[in-house]
Design brief:
The protein is globular, with a radius of gyration of 20 Å. It has 12 helices and 9 strands. The chain has 377 residues and is of the alpha/beta class. The protein has a 9-stranded mixed sheet with strand order 1-2-3-5-4-6-7-8-9, with helices on both faces. Helix content is 38%, strand content 16%. The chain has a single domain, classed as 3-Layer(aba) Sandwich (Rossmann fold).
Length: 377
């Protein structure tokens, strides 16, 4: 490939050279995947339209209010205090269900639990968050073996997922449950799948509402921990978290709050929300005045107690695993690198590819399977 073509691809796809990250492979496939990521990011911006100045002014004021709440409550200095431990659910509803993947249906159990998450008293945006009409029930897809004890894998999905079709495509029950023998639980994160109010799963996240994002992260952590508590009531002792993108963010937080997880896998992780949001901030916002521009210092202070980088993981280093794409233009390689450094340079697999098409990369399933074998060894 000519140097001129490499230069064009680098400029159009936003390639950068990151220290401690392998160089981007200049193949047509990798360039196409990076371009797909760019198109995805631009598409998300255009789907939400350009926020009006009054929306941004409100978001700016609210981010400052949340930053002050976190500081005044001592949550910025001691983020562990922000997260409360959920009790095991007192009731659960299980019913048989099917989802069509291709020409044949996949049978599973539909699990529903009461979330019972509540923001802290007086927390900015808390009343608005609790007013959501569909977010109070925790929904999950369950694949459980009959008979003796099995290890459990909790698959935490990425943005825009949370439905059976998307979850099964990424977490492959055929492989993880049937071939490898794991019990598999796939919870839907807040505002995703049956918990969302819009036409697009997770679409409500795209609005410039930083209080909503804090509550999304906080309830996502609460709900995954509630699933863990439910698994333990069923005798589960070996439990692994496997998160993708947004789910990796949540999983990295949960593994810093739970003492007895067997392991954690973070795939194409996003872990530094302010940097992620700035990477995708529409350039068109520059036309607005300074009073309608987001103060990223306040956003960082507001989101610090729900940042995976604010906590030490409780899972041992040899049972922490990361995979990430060198051409990822949704969660850029510096996101995975930040988590890798924070996790004491644990095992990481860099694959030549992007974010949106990562599920089809042939190197990921072997890496995940090998990681699970190591965790159980």
């Amino acid at each position: 490939m000519t140097s001129a073509w490499r230069s064009f691809a680098r400029d159009r796809c936003g390639w950068r050279r990151y220290a401690e990250v392998p160089p981007v492979e200049s193949s047509l496939r990798v360039i196409a995947e990076a371009a797909l990521d760019r198109g995805f990011s631009l598409g998300m911006n255009y789907l939400t339209d350009l926020p009006q100045p009054e929306e941004l002014r409100r978001a700016r004021v609210e981010a400052a209010a949340m930053a002050a709440f976190m500081a005044d409550g001592g949550f910025h200095d001691d983020p562990l205090r922000y997260h409360r431990t959920p009790e095991p659910p007192s009731r659960a509803r299980l019913r048989p269900a099917r989802a069509w993947l291709g020409r044949r249906p996949t049978a599973y159990q539909s699990l529903a639990l009461p979330s019972e998450y509540e923001p802290h008293p007086g927390e900015p945006g808390g009343v608005r968050w609790l007013a959501h009409p569909r977010n109070h029930t925790l929904h999950a897809q369950l694949f459980e073996h009959a008979g003796g004890p099995r290890p459990w894998l909790v698959g935490v999905h990425g943005f825009g997922m949370g439905t059976p079709l998307t979850n099964f495509t990424v977490f492959s029950p055929e492989r993880l449950h049937r071939e490898l023998g794991w019990n598999l639980v796939l919870p839907s994160l807040p505002l995703h799948g049956p918990r969302g109010a819009g036409r697009m799963s997770g679409g409500e996240v795209l609005a410039p509402d930083y209080l909503r994002l804090v509550h999304l992260f906080a309830q996502g952590v609460w709900d995954v921990r509630r699933i863990l508590a439910w698994i333990r009531t069923r005798g589960g002792t070996q439990i692994v978290l496997y998160g993708i993108s947004l789910g990796a963010y949540v999983s990295a937080l949960v593994c810093a709050l739970e003492d007895d997880l067997a392991g954690v896998i973070a795939g194409i992780p996003a872990v530094d929300f302010p940097n992620l949001a700035r990477d995708h901030e529409p350039r068109r916002l520059r036309r607005y005045g300074s009073d309608a521009r987001i103060d990223w210092t306040h956003v960082r202070q507001a989101t610090h107690p729900v940042s995976p980088l604010a906590f030490a993981p409780r899972v041992s280093r040899e049972r922490r695993f990361i995979f990430a794409g060198t051409a990822d233009r949704v969660a850029r390689p510096d996101q995975a690198r930040a988590l890798w450094r924070h996790w004491d340079r644990c095992t990481i697999h860099w694959f030549a590819g992007g974010h949106v098409a990562a599920q089809w990369n042939p190197t990921i399933s072997p890496f995940v399977d090998a990681s699970l074998r190591t965790i159980l060894a």
